[in-house]
Amino acid sequence: MSTYSMKKIAAYAAAALLIASPAIAAIVKVDNAKSAVNIVFKQMNVPVEAKFKKFSASIDYDAAKPEASKATVDIDVASFDLGDAEYNKEVLKKEWFNAAAFPKASFVSTSMKAGAAGKLDVTGKLSIKGKTVDVSFPLSIKKEGNSQVFDGSLPIKRLTFNIGEGEWKDTGMVADEVQIKFHVVTNP
After folding, report:
1. How confident is the model at residue 124 (pLDDT cuts 50, 70, 90)?
2. Which of 120, 153, 161, 172 has a CA positioned 20 to 30 A from the CA of residue 40?
3. What integer pLDDT is reported at residue 188 of this predicted model?
4. What is the arithmetic mean of pLDDT over 92-103?
5. Strands 36-43 and 104-114, how do they pair?
6. What is the pLDDT of residues 58-73, one digit of tens each?
7. Cα torsion angle, 131, 132, 133, 137, sign
């Protein structure tokens, strides 16, 4: 290959990199060490908080055009942690999450728009245990240094997703209402 051809290829590569730079700047990375997905439910009318230890999130947020923003979250159901190994094993069974058949829960946004008090109104599809439903919730966004912090709480009914089958459909022991709380920190 001639020196001229190599210089030409280098020039094209440099031009491509310059053109791609704005797109590269828009990519954000989730800081898993600072992020969390928790749930809160009531067992015998006592609030219980648990967490998912493993999840991934992809957020493409544009403050100037929030309606162009997108988000997806995938949760490793087997990472559910109630703080006790026996309870953790129990909730992965067929009657609860059925993690063997449905190892992931997911959320995919379908729209975001400016809402009240500087929040975003987020709408999307939530899939848990093979069932997908439309959901909406407010999302707050704040800047902390170079990071963006996304906080939200999504109320669901566990029985909508068949979480708690058989004798566990009775909501006297475990309430139907569940709050999915998330705190996602992204870095450029």
Report:
1. very high
2. 120
3. 76
4. 97
5. unpaired
6. 999 888 899 999 999 9
7. positive
Q: Helix-strand-coil percent breakdown of the chain, rounded to 5?
A: 25, 50, 25
Share of the chain above pLDDT 70, in %: 85
The stretch 19-23 carries a mean pLDDT of 34
Provide the token pair at 67: 């309606």
pLDDT of residue 96: 96
Long-range contacts of 155-162 (CB under 8 A, 24+ apart): 155/179, 155/180, 156/126, 156/128, 156/180, 158/41, 160/131, 160/133, 161/128, 161/129, 161/131, 161/133, 162/129, 162/131
The pair of structure tokens assigned to 94 is: 């067929």
Structure tokens at 172: 């006297």
Give the separation between CA 133 and CA 160, rounded to whole angstroms. Answer: 9
Asked whether the beta carbons of 108 and 145 are under 8 A apart, the reply is: no
Q: What's phi and psi for 172, nearest 5 deg?
A: -70, -30
H or E element, residue 184: strand 174-187
Q: CATH number for 27-187: choose from 3.40.50.1860, 3.40.190.10, 3.30.160.270, 2.40.128.110.
A: 2.40.128.110
Residue 8 Ramachandran class (φ > 0 left, ψ -120 to 50 alpha, else beta): alpha
Q: Which residue bears the tokens 């006790």?
A: 84
